[in-house]
Q: What sequence folds into this?
């Protein structure tokens, strides 16, 4: 068997590779009964006395490395900080392992480091240790940045993907598809007369506001595979279904237009600054208001609710119903 | 400026890149007053109530990926576990971010995962979360594995590179150059009739035994740049010198022979299962005995002592003295 592109695309084929080769061959996959590798959550946890250490890791290989709204540095910090955040933990620190291609521009490298710094300042996290390697130019294209985030949450307050309960409301913190569609538009050189930009941003501000209200049951940041993947993962891990009101899903007009031209489904492409979360029904309105007051949350919506169905069902704009499936693999070349 | 191979080679040129571009452009570099990025230690720490969380990260790009004595999987776990260990922290968990080249053999991938599992079992650590990406075959050669290790140490008991005190004895836990020289021999296809293998192994057993005695002041695992780099880093960060007795440095006959044929200095090439440590003089013998009783420590030696000199001075086999300099860059193509 040869590893193919779809094995890394965040869909069902990738899940197969992970289960059959990785999970199957490892014995030690959790520590002290915390969230571990088998849980395939956004990260993992190490329970200590009064709290849990939460960690998450990601290798960033975005193409192009500079794009409207950010660059690989922005995404390396935001992406990892976000994975820690959606476990309910306050992100504190980042480790940063970079592999750079021989001949890479020192000026571009400096720009990337400055982007990382900007997100760190905004999110209140520190890059506390790192590693820098250089690979021959014929062995690596440009740069790969692997970041690991470390956060802290009080014991018992960690949010797992499996936490949804029937009757919960589903909140989406803003418009979907901005990252994936803007990158694809930019990459294909389509001259859309648009200001469409990646939504890459740290989500901790929105998460913290929502957690303070006290009704959040589960969260996920919809990156690879888009909200189609994130909603299905939350539902299947929680053993529930969802009924989503399509009318409520925030979508920018430019994203709709570009999606049609590119033949892409905005529900299946990556976002880099959004959260979907389950919230106890009686706290949903208050949580929505709290999120809307934050920097990136003003377009947040309650988009549906958790049901005892086994599928994520969308009530379409025309009033019909269809099942929203998790993508088998990325519908587009990798953009995150 | 273009990034060159020497920028990632673990020597002085790399220190320059790190200082001028990375450290210079980042504001947040530590958390709660712990060991941070500016310390350029083996890892970093996040002080909590009664203990510190210790983290270390590394991108592994070894060539060849399978070599006598191990593979990139072995080294990914051992290397990261060792960096946590030499900070005095018990390693608990690993995060594992892999980027695989499209077309990479599934069988080789499985072998690598099995090697990771074996080291995890031996070291008592768990791979608790991960990330898997696939890159186009013309953009990445083979595989890169970025691991981050998380460990715990009681507050105040962390071992920093700067901890050496004048009069301390220097212990080296075994023979040097095995990893670098065996890989270079293998890679060059030299038909040495030898069993020379990489020394890749987790060092926590040796470190734990030494820590129990109570006199360890500083530790480092001599990887890139070899013991020449590790001893100089310890000395310069502690503001001291060393006098090393060359006769006491354990060197395998095959390493000496192969080094001469390859024109390499075994003090400057990587090790993957050794520790150099400073120990209070009155506890040095007891510490040495404790290390010698462990699986990988039977050849440990007291190789010298900490002086008020500013250099690492070697008393050579012929009775002369020379300064052991830190290498400017790797003397060999990257082997770790």
A:
């Amino acid at each position: 068997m040869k590893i193919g592109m779809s094995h890394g695309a965040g869909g069902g084929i990738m899940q197969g590779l992970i289960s059959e080769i990785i999970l199957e061959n490892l014995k030690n996959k959790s520590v002290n009964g915390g969230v571990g590798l088998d849980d395939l959550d956004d990260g993992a946890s190490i329970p200590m006395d009064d709290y849990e250490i939460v960690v998450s890791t990601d290798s960033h290989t975005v193409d192009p490395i500079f794009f409207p709204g950010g660059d690989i540095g922005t995404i390396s910090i935001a992406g990892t900080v976000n994975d820690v955040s959606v476990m309910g933990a306050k992100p504190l620190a980042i480790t940063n392992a970079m592999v750079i291609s021989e001949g890479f521009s020192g000026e571009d490298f400096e720009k990337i480091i400055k982007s990382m710094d900007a997100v760190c300042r905004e999110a209140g996290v520190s890059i506390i240790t790192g590693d820098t390697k250089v690979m021959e130019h014929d062995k690596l294209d440009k740069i790969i940045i692997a970041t690991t985030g470390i956060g802290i949450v009080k014991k018992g307050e960690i949010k797992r993907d499996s936490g949804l309960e029937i009757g919960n409301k589903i909140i989406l913190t803003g418009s979907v598809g901005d990252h994936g569609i803007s990158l694809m538009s930019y990459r294909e050189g389509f001259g859309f007369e648009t200001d469409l930009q990646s939504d890459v941003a740290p989500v901790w501000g929105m998460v913290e506001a929502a957690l303070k209200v006290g009704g959040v049951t589960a969260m996920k940041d919809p990156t690879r595979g888009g909200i189609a993947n994130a909603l299905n993962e939350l539902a299947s891990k929680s053993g529930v279904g969802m009924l989503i009101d399509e009318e409520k899903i925030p979508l920018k007009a430019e994203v709709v237009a570009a999606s049609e031209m590119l033949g892409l489904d905005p529900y299946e492409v990556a976002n880099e600054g959004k959260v979907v979360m389950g919230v106890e029904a009686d706290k949903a309105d208050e949580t929505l208001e709290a999120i809307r007051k934050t920097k990136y949350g003003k377009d947040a919506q309650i988009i549906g609710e958790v049901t005892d169905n086994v599928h994520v069902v969308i009530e379409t704009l025309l009033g019909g119903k269809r099942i929203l499936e998790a993508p088998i693999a990325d519908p587009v070349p990798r953009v995150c």
Notes: Residues 258 and 321 of chain A are 24 Å apart (CA to CA).
